[in-house]
Amino acid sequence: MEAFRLFPQNPHFRPLDTLNESARERHAIYKMVDFLGVFENMCRLRCDHPRTEFQDQLVILLELETHGFDVDSLRIRFMEMLSLKDKREALETGSKDPKDHLEIERVNVQEHKIDIMLIDSQIDELRNKRERLVKENEQSTLNIVAGEKEVAEIEEAKCDCDRKFHELATAPY
Predict the structure, then answer these.
(1) What Rg do the C-alpha atoms of the chain give, in angstroms?
(2) Which residues span the domain enclosing 51?
(3) Which residues form a coiled coil (predicted)?
(4) How far apart are CA 172 and CA 94, in angstroms?
């Protein structure tokens, strides 16, 4: 559980809300195990491992993020590891041929895709929050109108009582 000590988490598991309770709990545990697995893989990966192993871990991190895991530091570390892996490979070959540039651009494209997916996810969350707030605002406005009507009726009834009291007090015997 070293991973959770180093990277404290507070996942929300909202994508699992559609599942029944036991399935939701089971899937939540799977997500926790996934997080531990990514952490362990990060610790065991070496420069000579295939690029796909690094990229697979980044995809898993993206999925974990949709469940509320804070994966920024792990993602940054994987990206730094990939960058160092690329740099080392370039030093080994000692050449800057177009294939190296294509691979760097592919990595850039992959990084941008991940960033875009994260931004899209944040936009969706903000849209949902805005819709909820608009609905709450409409309900509050209706409550205010109803409350103002009730206050006006009470004030009118008080004035009527005052008027009748005054008439009764000043009426001849």
Answers:
(1) 31
(2) 2-170
(3) 109-143
(4) 116
pLDDT digits (tens, 9 = 90+) for 113-163: 999 999 999 999 999 999 999 999 999 999 999 999 999 999 999 999 999
DSSP per-residue letters across 98-160: HHHHHHHHHHHHHHHHHHHHHHHHHHHHHHHHHHHHHHHHHHHHHHHHHHHHHHHHHHHHHHH
For the cut 80, the answer to whether the pLDDT of residue 23 exceeds it is yes
- Determine the straight-line distance between the first and last CA of the chain, rounded to whole angstroms: 92
- Span 69-106, pLDDT tens digits: 899 999 999 999 999 998 888 887 766 567 778 888 99
CB 11 within 8 A of CB 69: yes
Backbone angles phi, psi at 136, to 5 degrees: -65, -40
Q: Give the pLDDT confidence score for residue 147 in this predicted structure.
A: 96
Task: Find the largest Cα–Cα distance for the chain.
Answer: 118
The total of structural domains in the chain comes to 1
**Rounded Cα distance, 53 and 31, in Å:** 19
Number of H helices, E strands in the chain: 5, 0
Q: At 160, list the tokens.
A: 């009527």
Distance CA 110, CA 102 (A): 12
